[in-house]
Amino acid sequence: MRIVDIIDKKKKGYELTKEEINYFISSLVDKSMPDYQTSAWLMAVWFKGMTEQETADLTEAIINSGERIDFGDLADKIVDKHSTGGVGDKVTITLIPLLAAAGIPIAKLSGKGLGHTGGTIDKLESIPGFSCNLSVAQLISQVEDIGIAIGKQTGNLTPADGILYALRDVTATIDSMPLITSSVVSKKIAAGSNNIILDVKYGSGAFMKTPEDAVKLANLMVTTGKRLNKNITAVVTSMEEPLGRAVGNSIEIIESLEFLKGNIVEGDIAELTYDFAVIALLLTGKFDNEGVARSYLKDLIHSGKALNKFKELIKAQGGTPDITDDYSLFAQPKYKAEIKSEISGYVQKIDAFKIAYGCKLLGAGREKKDDLIDYSVGVFLNKKSGEYVKEGETLYTIYSNDEEKTSLCRQYCDSAFEFNQKVLNKEKSIYAVIKP
Ligand code: URA
To answer: Which domain holds residue 314?
Structure first.
C-alpha cells in the first residue's frame, strides 16, 4: 500500500477501505508518513467528505492508536460530557461538581483552547496550584475516592488524534464533519465511560455555523457511536453569543463559582447546566422523572453540596480551595476598562467569535500551540442579548495587562454588539436532542 494512492483515491471522492484507513493511521503514529502527506489527505477529506462507514473506521483506527481506559464496573455509572467548543463555555465546570454531588461519578478528559474557542483545562489551571496532569491510574483512583476527576487529553490516549488535531488547526481543516466526529468520538470511547453526552454547538462562535449543520454533525456522531457499540446522546445548542457573561479563564471560573453558590439562577449557564444534568440523571437511571430530577439538582446547589464537591476537586488536584471564598487569590489583571454604551436600546446580538477574538488579543488564548496564556485577562458582558442598556451605562468590561491590547480588544468587541429598539424573543439554548 502507498500513502500517495490513498490520498489520490480520497481526492477523487472514492470510499477508502478499512485496511487503507488503518494503514494511514499507523503510518501517522509510527511517523513514517511526513506531515505534508497527512495535510494533503486532510484537505482531500475536507473537500470530498467520508461515508458513515469510513467515519466509523477512522474513529476505530484512532481509538486503536493508543490505550483505552478501563473503569470496570464503574463504566456503566460514569458520565462523560464533551463540547465541540465554544466561547464562554463553562458548562463542564458548572456541571461536573453538580453531577458528582448527585452521586454520578465523573471522569473527564479535556483539551486546551483550540482556534478561537476556550479550553476547560486552561480555565481550571487558572486556579492557583490546580493541575490536570493526572495519569490514567490517578484519574481512576481519584474517581473512586471522591467521584470526580479531570485530566488532560494527553498521554497515550488516542495519540493519532493529537497529531491530526494539531495539523488540522494549521491547515484550515477543523470544520469537517467526519474529522470532528472521529476526533471527538474516538476520545470519548477511549476515555471509557458508557454514558456519553456530546454538546454539539452551532453559531458564530462554533465550528458549525447553522443549526442544520450541527444536527447533521450530531447525527453522524450518534451513528458512529452506534456502529462502534456505544450509546451517545448528542445535544445541539446555540453558540451565537458567548455563554454566560464572562469570557477568559479565571473570570470564567469566578462565574462558575457564582452559579455553584446559587447566585446565578437564570440565563443560559443555569439553563444549560440543569438541562445537561437532567439528561445525565435520566440516562444513568438515577431518576425517571424530569421534574423530580430538576428539583433534586436545585437542592444540591442551594444546600452547597455542589460547591463542596468543587472544593474537593480543587483540593485533590493541588489547587487552593480558598479561592472559592476569596477571588483576590486569582492572578489579578492590571487594568479594568468599563466600556459605556453610546446608544440606548435592547441588545439584539453579541457575536461570539468577535468577543473570543478580542479576548485572544488580550492574551486569554493561544496563537501557537505552545504559547503561554494570561489567565487574568478577559471580557465581562455587563449586558447580554435581550437586556436593555441606557446610553452611558456599562455595556461590557475589559480586564487586561496591556493598554494597547485593551484598545485592540475593544475594536473587536465594539463591533460584536447589535441593538434594537424592540425587545426580542430569546431562542432557547437547546435546539435538538439526538438519542441513539
Ligand atoms: N473538539 C475535538 O475534540 N475535536 C474536534 O475536531 C473539534 C472539537
So the answer is: 72-325
pTM: 0.91
Residue 370 has pLDDT above 80, yes or no: no
Residue 220's closest CA among 274, 184, 263? Answer: 184
Q: Are residues 215 and 116 in the same domain?
A: yes
Q: Judge whether 168 counts as a catalytic residue.
A: yes
In this structure, the answer to whether residues 264 and 283 fall within a common structural domain is: yes
Q: Residues 432, 219: contact at Cβ < 8 Å?
A: no
Ligand 1, atom 8: nearest CA belongs to which residue?
84
Point out the catalytic residue in the list 82, 116, 309, 354.
82
Residue 368 pLDDT more than 80?
no
Q: CA-to-CA distance for 122 and 132, rounded, in angstroms?
A: 9
Inter-axis angle of helices 177-190 and 159-170, nearest 10: 150
Rg (CA), the chain: 21
Name the domain count of the chain: 3
CATH value at residue 412:
3.90.1170.30
Asked if residue 42 belongs to a domain, the reply is yes
Question: In this structure, are 335 and 321 located in the same domain?
Answer: no
Which is catalytic among the residues 108, 112, 116, 168? 168
What confidence tens digit (pLDDT) does each residue in 130-168 have? 999 888 889 999 999 999 999 887 668 899 998 998 899
**Residue nearest ligand 1's atom 2 by CA:** 184
Q: What type of residue sits at position 324?
A: T
Does the C-beta of 373 come closer than 6 Å to ligand 1?
Answer: no
In this structure, are 285 and 409 located in the same domain? no
